[in-house]
Amino acid sequence: MTTSKTDHSHKNHIADYSHIASQTVNAIENISGVHCGYRRAHAKGICCQAVFRPSGLAAPFTTAPHLQEQEVSAVVRFSGSSTNPAVSDFMSPAKGIAVQFKLPDGSITNLVGATIPVFFARTPESFLDMIQAVHRAQEGTLGPIDLIQEITSHFSESKESLLAVKKLMPPTSYAECHYYCIHAYFFIDHKGNKYPVKFEWIPAHGVHTLSIIDAAQQPKDYLEEKLSQRLKVEPVVFHLHAILGETGDPTDDPTTAWPEDRRRIDLGQLYISDIIKEPVDLLMDPAIISEGMALSDDPILNFRHDTYAVSHERRRQERRSE
């Protein structure tokens, strides 16, 4: 396990990617148009009320308040990956989970995950290139062969992600998906030691999927409907696992998975109890984290901070103009 010393007064420094954030949001909007008031990605979603009950096993590695022993409340948003909020659940292969923990002092910390273990772009620039390539293909200025050549120019970094998407089967429920938080962070203990860490949400009832034929016959919003039905009977429960990195495990590359034999710690359980109306101005920025944690040097993680801010501000302006 890799550890290092850091100053007790450590403050998270978020790299500035504002110069490319607006370009990226524009490019995403070009794919399926502007859907006023909706997120530019993961547009279709459903929010729930939850509590997180920590196991206390994280205490030797971090002072993060939501990972000690005190129960904290949380808002959970499940979503599809599409930029179009009208798309059916079946037509949006990857699913997402975003959890916002409310800390004892009233502040928040976020954790965002998806059903694929790695991202498809290593840098903000390559992410933008790929989004623009898809748009050119839609406009007819980039044919199928040219699109393939464009994507394969980034193939070395996209291979794991594309293979993961190809293997995805439609889930039976949002409650029965394995969600990977993709980005590396650092735990910081009370002595200032840093530990590289990734996170995963593991469903307590296991992972279950549908066949393509069965999924195609489901209602358009079947995942929301099944979640609503289930919560009338019992809470949905996830375990939060921390995966501790070792020397050589990249913290700056979200396109590369860590070895499967890394140490895991069960940090606690998330109990989801009720569906709620999405809170006004809910922002699930994965770069907003608590004390006892630090951002890694992953450029995509840092880039998401500025990109989420641009999308969030556009949504706010759209709501004001209604």
Describe the structure.
The protein is an alpha+beta fold. The protein has one domain (4-113, 162-314): Catalase core domain (Catalase HpII,  Chain A, domain 1), CATH 2.40.180. The protein is 28% helix and 24% strand. The protein has seven helices and eleven strands. The protein has helices at residues 18-32, 124-139, 144-152, 155-167, 212-216, 222-231, 299-321, and strands at residues 4-5, 45-54, 72-80, 95-102, 108-114, 179-180, 185-188, 193-203, 236-244, 264-276, 293-295. Strands 1, 2, 3, 4, 5, 6, 7, 8, 9, 10 and 11 form an eleven-stranded antiparallel beta sheet that branches. A hairpin with a 5-residue loop joins strand 4 and strand 5 (108-114). Helix 1 packs parallel to helix 2 (124-139), helix 1 (18-32) packs across helix 7 and helix 2 (124-139) runs antiparallel to helix 3 (144-152).
The major pleated sheet works out as:
11 strands, antiparallel
CATH superfamily: Catalase core domain
- Highest-level CATH class: Mainly Beta
Low-confidence stretches: 6-11
**Helix- and strand-based class?**
alpha+beta
Compute the CA-based radius of gyration.
Answer: 19 Å
Which percent range describes the beta-strand content? 15-25%
Query: How many structural units, i.e. domains?
Result: 1
Our measurement of the CA-to-CA distance between the termini, rounded to an integer number of angstroms, reads 52 Å
Instruction: Supply the CATH architecture.
Output: Beta Barrel
